[in-house]
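User: My collaborator sent over this chain with a note saying "see what the structure looks like." That's all I know about it. Can you take a look?
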Amino acid sequence: MRPDDEAEFVSLVESCSGRLLRAAWLMTGSAAAAEDLVQSTFEKVYVAWRRIDRAAAVAYAKRVLLNEHIDTTRKRSRERLVSEPPEMGWLDQEPSSAAYLVAALRQLTPREREVVVMRHYADMSESDVAASLGVSVGTVKSTSSRALARLRSVLAAEGDSHVR
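Assistant: Without extra context I'll predict from the sequence alone. Here is the result:
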C-alpha cells in the first residue's frame, strides 16, 4: 500500500473505530466478539482499500461490519449449550445503562437486532440495510417495526416508564 493510501486508511480507522465498535457490541452483546468483528471488518476494508471510494469509506466499513456479523452468526450454531440458565441480573439495572439495552436487544432475533442496530444506531438508510441484508426495503421496514414493538414491550414489562 502506498504511504498516502495508508495514511487515509489510518485516518478512517481512527475516525470510525469507536462507532463501529459500539455498533458491533450492540449486535453481539459481547465486548470480545465486538472487537473481533471490528478487527475482521478493518481487515476486509484494508484488502479492498484501493477499490473503495474514499468519500463513502465509512459507509463501506458499516456495510462490511454488518456482513461480517451475518457471516459470523451463520457460522455459529444457533443453540449454545450451558450448564445453567443465563443470569437475569440485567433486570435490576438502571434502564439507562448500556448493559440493560444490550440485554433487551438479546431478546430479538439476530436479524431483528441487526436491522435495529444498523438502522437506528449506525444510522444507515433503509435501502442500505436492505442491500446489505439482501432483502427488500419493505422487509427492513416490517422487521424494524416488529423489533421496535418487541423492544417496547420488553422494556415496558421491566418498568421503563419513558418507553412508548
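A starting point for your reply to your collaborator: The domain at 88-164 is CATH 1.10.10.10 (Arc Repressor Mutant, subunit A).
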